[in-house]
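User: Sequence for NADH-quinone oxidoreductase subunit I below. Tokens please.
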Amino acid sequence: MAEVKKLKRPELNTGEKLYLIALAKGAMVTLKHAVKSVTGKSRGATGLNSSGLGITMQFPEQRWDDFLPEYYRGAPALVTDEQDRERCVSCQLCEFICPPKAIKIIPAEIPADDEWAKVEKRPKEFDIDMTRCIYCGMCEEVCPEQAIYLRKEYLITGTSREDMVHNKAKLYEIGGKRVGLVNKWNELK
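Assistant: Structure tokens for NADH-quinone oxidoreductase subunit I:
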């Protein structure tokens, strides 16, 4: 059996019990940052395009758009091909893999008289609840047709919960066109 050791806490002196030294150190750090901010010498003031008083950006006049990293994941959106055809085939993989269950797809058949009737389905309804979306990017990774992308959008607002549910029309409006091969429309498929 292992030996049990009892440890005794060190005794604090009066200054340590009142946290006076810690409070003084914190006040000095705050004062140092305040002085640098007022003199315009704060870290990041010029690089982040701030107002000059600290590194706080003056939103909405100043935006983070130029400073977003390449790996930034923003709002998901649907895209069309060059001829404004839907890329989505309603495979529902994005709906199944979505951790918070923010995506809801209702598939529809493509009519037999359509030029692209060889493609089985298209989305009748495609909704993404932006209040539930966690911007994980799994929907983008799993899409076989590259129909859904995470954009660099970070300004997603609404006045009600209904405004935050993006329907198919809104998702296509946000996404726009995407150039490149689409397996769905490939003649050899």
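The mean pLDDT is 82.
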